[in-house]
Amino acid sequence: MLLKLFKYVWRSVTRQKARSVLTVVGIATAMFLFCFIEGLQSGVRQATENEATQNVLIVYQKSRFCPSTSNIPERYATQIAEIPGVKSVLPVKIFVNNCRASLDSVTFRGVPERTFTDGEREIQLVDGSIDDFAKKTDGALVGRALAERRGLKPGDRFKVGEVDVGVAGIYLSDVPGEENVAYSHLEFLQRARGVDSIGRVTQFELEIEDAEKSDEIIAKIDEMFKSDEIQTSTKSHKAFISAATGDLLGLVKFTRWLGLICVLVVLGLTANTVYVMVQDRVKEHAVLQTLGFPGYYLFGMVIGESLVLSIGGGLLGTAAAALILRYGNLGLGAEGVQIAFMLTPGVVVAGMAAAAVTGVLAGVMPAIQSAVAPIVDSLRKV
């Protein structure tokens, strides 16, 4: 019975091929935008709630608004490391090609050579070697997303602004956005751009033993340097991301409304098409009822037609979004913080669920109309 119903539904949908194709393409376009927005939302959630950064604190200059304005003495690291509960302190010098929100923001992080050579921080290389990085003062370890976006491989030269490095390796990261970052030697970046800033860093990245004691440690650090050369402002990794990308996150929240609009577009487009299809076959449906087909059969048939169109468009739009999110290596950067567009199972499920739900909702009214229409009145219509 179900197989016969599906065959009839398929024939009904393909009778007006041009209309059906245009409807599917319209639905696919709206669902592509919906999934793309969901990918951005997923990236924001991963960046702020990732478990790998729950025990990480960021120390930077008080009242800074861009990495280039934060200039902390490197000697602070020794004092911070002595605070109980602090496992490690990583001094970082940051250079970013664009401090404002950008889809092609490139962030350099200068770190001490021992960070990777002595295993202080683990890094998963997929190409190149740590030895090459250690041997070359201008060597850099480039994230996979950044390397693919810029077409880089080990041995290539990579220049952004006045910073010119040689690619020593390509790495992967479990932290979203991290693969859009290039790591270089701390001293190299301190001397880059014709400025000697030896002994000065942009920020410190702290790993602490217990995330529940983060407030206590934050208070101790900021109090320690309250009367020193440069005052500090310490935040959790999540709070740091939120503060650095405040305007950007506001824009991201607004995109939720765009996602809702996309769903409403799908609903309206599908409902209009199904309604026209039902009107074109009023007399045909009356004949089916005369032959003994019950109203619920006609109801299911119309809902099936709506679902075929919406799910077909959903599959096409979701697949297109998935391909771009997976291979486009897209990300938003602001103030040296990178947010990656994430392709997760949740994004795919959300796209297909939205298509299916809107397909059912769009077909309900035309289906009810078809199921309860009087046979005599329907037969009189031409």
Protein architecture, described:
It is a single chain. This protein has two domains: 2-48 and 247-380, no CATH class; 63-230, no CATH class. It is 54% helix and 19% strand. The protein has helices spanning 2-15, 17-49, 76-81, 114-117, 130-135, 144-150, 186-191, 214-224, 237-244, 246-280, 282-290, 295-327, 345-372, 375-380, and strands at residues 56-61, 72-73, 86-96, 107-111, 124-128, 139-143, 157-160, 163-172, 181-185, 200-201, 203-208, 232-236, 331-334, 337-340. Strands 1, 3, 4, 5, 6, 7, 8, 9, 11 and 12 form a ten-stranded mixed beta sheet that branches. The protein is elongated, with a radius of gyration of 29 Å.
N-to-C terminal Cα separation, in Å?
29 Å
Q: What portion of residues belong to β-strands?
A: 15-25%
Count all strands and give the number: 14
SSE arrangement, N to C: HHEEHEEHEHEHEEEHEEHEHHHHEEHH
Mean pLDDT: 79
- Structural class of the helices, strands and pairings? alpha+beta
Count of structural domains: 2
Topology:
Elements (H helix, E strand, L loop, with lengths): L1 H14 L1 H33 L6 E6 L10 E2 L2 H6 L4 E11 L10 E5 L2 H4 L6 E5 L1 H6 L3 E5 H7 L6 E4 L2 E10 L8 E5 H6 L8 E2 L1 E6 L5 H11 L7 E5 H8 L1 H35 L1 H9 L4 H33 L3 E4 L2 E4 L4 H28 L2 H6 L2
Parallel strand pairs: 4-9, 6-8
Antiparallel strand pairs: 1-11, 1-12, 2-10, 3-4, 3-11, 5-8, 6-9, 7-8, 13-14
Helix pairs in contact: 1-12, 2-10, 2-12, 2-13, 10-12, 10-13, 12-13
